[in-house]
Amino acid sequence: MNFTRSQVTRISLCTIALAALAACGGNDDTPSRGTLIAVPTTLTTLTAAQIDAATAASGLQALTGKALCDVKVVALNYATIGATGESTTGGSTVNASGVLLAPTGTCTAPAALVAYAKGTDVQKPRTLANPTDSETFLLVAVYAAQGYAVVATDYLGFAQSNYAYHPYLHADSEASSVIDSIRAARNAAPVVGATLSGKVMLTGYSQGGHSSMAAHRAAERDNAGEINVVAGAHLAGPYNLSGSFKVGGAIAGYQFFVPYLITSWQKVYGGLYSDVNAAFKAPYASYIETLLPSPTLNYTTLVTSGKLPGINGETPAQARDMMFQTAFIADVQTNNNNAVYLAARKNDLLGWSPKSKLLLCGGAGDPTVPPAVHQKVMKADFDSRGLTNVSSADVDAAIQFTYGPGHVAPTDPTSAAFATYYGNYHGGYEPPFCHAQAKALFDTVK
Known about the structure:
Elements: H1 5-18, H2 22-25, E1 41-46, H3 48-58, H4 61-64, E2 70-79, E3 88-89, E4 92-93, E5 95-104, E6 111-117, H5 134-142, E7 149-153, H6 171-188, E8 196-205, H7 207-222, E9 228-235, H8 241-244, H9 254-269, H10 276-279, H11 299-304, H12 316-323, H13 326-334, H14 339-347, E10 357-362, H15 375-383, E11 390-394, H16 396-403, H17 416-443
Parallel strand pairs: 6-7, 6-8, 8-9, 9-10, 10-11
Antiparallel strand pairs: 1-2, 2-5, 3-4, 5-7
Helix pairs in contact: 6-7, 16-17
């Protein structure tokens, strides 16, 4: 068959730009996972000078060093699968959005790809395809400005995703969202003038640490011929979810994370409770199943609006007791056949053996994802199988030196200094130090 020049041009552009979407060939089949739903859009290019000015002003440059590259910020929208493996929802392809951060300017060598998974998000419209987002800029400064390409998913149920909810801390769909973002980045790279080396590193923070480890496990198990994972750095993640439910205390941020988790797993598995009123107290029972992620509220306004406890300074344990039925929580903690506990077991990340290098990082003072419950248990699990490619870092000393009043952690739990220090520990202080540890590992294998 012969084609005119215009036909050849049209076919080539369509194939490159949309990575063989059904629209190119007139095929109505569901696009394959990682296929681009739309042409990737370059939102801006951050210059090295702009990045340096921002990192110098924030103090971050002491960890990142000066930028070596300009960075293109590219919006992605790609095909993926849902929590039960479905490829369509409501007649449309299941999709997720995200961002590709591509080094450019003087950085011309093929770049290793860092696949990043974000921390717990309660804002449904939020996307990482936003150069002013603090989490996105941290990725720019630590990795992309230093010559790595970065792809970061917004997950199912956020931003442009058409999925009806976010399957929070559901390991399989976290893994598929991250793995398909890698495919999307590979499809987008030639469109935006980026060149990838083929090496892939995985990292994530908080929920993202759980997500990135789930993706690391799945990629080595199921996609080794396609994805060359050379390292993973999993940061402050809740790897031991079932163990966390046996701990009597309540973590900082309990009123956000635990209801989010239980209502998500109820949607994925069913049967965690027979009726929402059996698990939650009024008034929360009337709206908790559709509260998170929120189209309008953030962490602060969820509390100030009264949708979640905290406006009167309730402790995590008080917030738990305000929200949950006492019998429900007691059964989760004590009954090994409890449906919540069994769902947690399905999403634990214990019991696998990475083939590539793996780093665990956290801070011993983290009140939200305590390393004693997660990081140390995960490391002991790896050690029980004699693995020598796994390392663990504790950045607490650096956090205390940098942020602790008088360079030590405050010890009076009633003091304002205590509240400020521990209120900012997990979400603000810890991430840059762990990302610096992650990059140091990646630099050894890039």
